[in-house]
Design a protein that fits this description.
Elements lengths: L2 H13 L3 H7 L6 H15 L4 E5 L6 H9 L5 E8 L2 H11 L4 E4 L2 H7 L4 E6 L11 H15 L9 H8 L4 E12 L9 H10 L1 E7 L14 E7 L8 E8 L4 E8 L30 E5 L6 H4 E3 H7 L6 E4 L10 E2 L13 E4 L5 H7 L1 H10 L7 H4 L15 E3 L2 E2 L11 E4 L10 E5 L1 H9 L4 H8 L4 H7 L1 E2 L5 E2 L2 H5 L4 H10 L2 H14 L1
Parallel strand pairs: 1-2, 1-4, 2-3, 4-5, 6-8, 13-17
Antiparallel strand pairs: 5-7, 6-7, 8-9, 10-18, 11-14, 12-14, 15-17, 15-18, 16-20, 19-20
Helix pairs in contact: 1-5, 3-4, 12-13, 15-20
Length: 519
Amino acid sequence: MTEQQRTAIQVALDAERTALERNQAGQFATPPELAQDIMRFALKIHGKQRVQFLEPSCGSGSFISALLREASAKQIGSVTGVELDPRFARAAQELWGQVADIVEGDFIEWAARTNRQASLVVANPPYVRHHHLSGTQKSKYANASARELGIPVSQLAGLYVYFLLLAHKALAADAVSAWLIPTEFMDVNYGVALRQYLATQVELVRIHRFDPNDAQFDDALVSSAVVVFRNRKPTPAAVADFTFGGSMDAPRDIHRVKVSLLRPKEKWIGHFQGRHVQERPADVVGDFFDIRRGIATGNNTVFIRPRAELERIGVDSKHYRPILPSPRNVNVEDVTTDAAGWPQNVEQLALIDTDEPMEVLAVSDPALAEYLAAHDKGEQNGYLSRQRKPWYKQERRPAPPFLCTYMGRGSAASEQPVRFILNRSNATATNGFLLLYPKGVLADFLAHHPDAIDEVHAALNSFTPEELRNGGRAYGGGLHKIEPSELAALDGSRIRAIIRASAEPNELSDLVERALAVA
């Protein structure tokens, strides 16, 4: 069989499922060129000894095919592929049955009972998010990880985390493994388990991070990395390569990091820029701001309407308040205000928000009562609406002076992936934004120096694209995202410098004392 035949079968089998079905099953086929690039590097690390090869979740056998193209017949001792989907297992058997043992079944269960010891594992495990795993599965896999490796795993971990950890039992001493997994494991809290394994249980050789502008899978929403390691404990002098861009053999950037400097509870993204120790800055953004997500209404189409529309149908203005449009429709960096507190240079939208029961509204504001009744097509039974009494009452989110568009592309190195917006109006915002409320010494400072709000805004927008990308996380197609805790951890020295430069010495002392008293 040829790689062209395998690719044709792969395309045909993929076409039998919708994109949603394949996403839920974590089925993202490895492109042939990428499979060959990874295999070539893994074989170089493996050396000339005979290969006992294992491909977990083998699908149609992209890495089996790459092995047969990259290694000589003399070098290959055995080949095993394990695949849960019976359609792909049959296809792999037809394609590679003469040279490989294809096992149809759950890889994690197979790994727990097998006596086989692989000298080379190359895998693209299923990217199944945690909410597609049952509680029973999570408990079973987490217990196995704790039992076999002594490593606890978060309930938020995706299936690929368990695959990589529980494959350990099938590894021979000094075996080489290369795993194609989402880059996010270096950022997120549930990635601590993998980071602990890579820093303490095995000898990490390389983590290659692909450029997020070049998603490895057309239908995946995550950026990818290849993690390569040997099954032996790291020595005190062990060094790992953190490489970025290009190919495995010819990366664009290389940074060498002592494994002893890898901290499982810290993010590892900074190692790609040579920041080996990620120390907390003296001041962080979270010291100066409370950072909250915007309002989640449950149905923006119902609860957010143009101000003019609600005025036209006669809704009492006390039952709605200003709210900003979505980030893509706020094309200004400074939202100005009219005398009534409504935004002046973006569309004026109104958030319906009242705690008056429907029977009271029927008398006090019949226009709103009629509107809500007409638009209540199951809204009361929505997840968010069920948590509210009455169902149309919204979360408390005062108008924030600053907002962050926490998700964006900013594909070029010089482009900021997120924006900070100054809000002079009384408008709140949806959960398409992060809302920044000054607190402590900054709140006191701005109360005495309201004109300094522009300097604070400029300081927020002075974060470099690299700082924002390293502080957040990357997804496929160049999408970048920064969570509230990640934004709070960014360097806050710019804010501190404004306070120190603008405040008189005695005033600064007073501000600090008041802030400490509040704390």
